[in-house]
Amino acid sequence: MPGGRKTAAQKEAAAAEKRAAEALQRGPAVSQDEAAVRNQVLNEVLDAFSSLGGQGGMDDILKVVNDLKKKQQEQASERASVATKSAATQNA
After folding, report:
1. How many CB atoms lie within 10 A of CB 45?
2. Higher per-residue pLDDT: 3 or 80
3. In a domain, 23, yes or no
4. DSSP H or E run through 60
5. Tens of pLDDT along 36-63?
6. Domain membership flag for residue 10
């Protein structure tokens, strides 16, 4: 076997090493849905803070966080309600 040739196992090992190095250099891929959710959340947070006068400091921050939590809980309740109604309709 000539010295310049690689075996199939050596080629596969080199390819795997190259893929691993590329994976370390790239950030994790984000799906379109996840990116849309992140963007929506960011916009909601920015809107919430822009509606405040900016004079309250931590009180303003706590108000924004609590308002966002409340909104998230309301949306989760709505989704659960829709899912329950959907399941009841399918079982009927």
Report:
1. 13
2. 80
3. no
4. helix 58-91
5. 888 888 888 888 777 776 666 777 788 8
6. no
